[in-house]
UniProtKB/TrEMBL annotation:
Example GO molecular function: zinc ion binding
Protein name per the record: Formamidopyrimidine-DNA glycosylase catalytic domain protein
InterPro entries: FPG_cat, FPG_N
GO biological process terms held by the UniProt record: base-excision repair
Ranges where the Formamidopyrimidine-DNA glycosylase catalytic domain occurs: 2-110
PROSITE patterns reported for this sequence: FPG_CAT
Lineage: Bacteria, Pseudomonadati, Pseudomonadota, Gammaproteobacteria, Chromatiales
A Pfam short name: Fapy_DNA_glyco
Length: 110
């Protein structure tokens, strides 16, 4: 399971790569990430929004959106973030794939 320093590293990585970019698309490959949300509802909440800032609390990473909502990430046993340019570079174990208007993607795997 990721330790607190690992989650802090993920926070800094997201801060350096994906903040203040407009979300163009949301794809969910691991529906277990959603808890009680539908894929459509998550897409509605995230698309055309920007990731505004991050806060770490324990092993959770909270990401505020420009409309005041929050995206909560928990990294599980082998979780990570990956920011990349080409969708074909998406890892096979993608959980949540966020596409930005600048053509880059953020993969969250828990």
């Amino acid at each position: 399971m990721p330790e607190l320093p690992d989650v802090e590293t993920f926070k800094r990585y997201l801060d350096a790569t994906a903040l203040h970019q407009t979300i163009d698309s949301v794809s969910v490959k691991a529906t277990v990430l959603l808890k009680d949300l539908s894929i459509r509802h998550l897409q509605h909440c995230l698309e055309k929004r920007q990731l505004k800032e991050t806060q770490r609390h324990g092993k959770y990473l909270f990401v505020s959106l420009d409309d005041g909502d929050w995206l909560v990430l928990h990294f599980g046993m082998t979780g990570y973030l990956q920011y990349f340019k080409h969708r074909k570079d998406s890892p096979p174990d993608t959980g949540l794939l966020i596409g930005f208007q600048n053509g880059y993607y953020l993969n969250f795997k828990n």
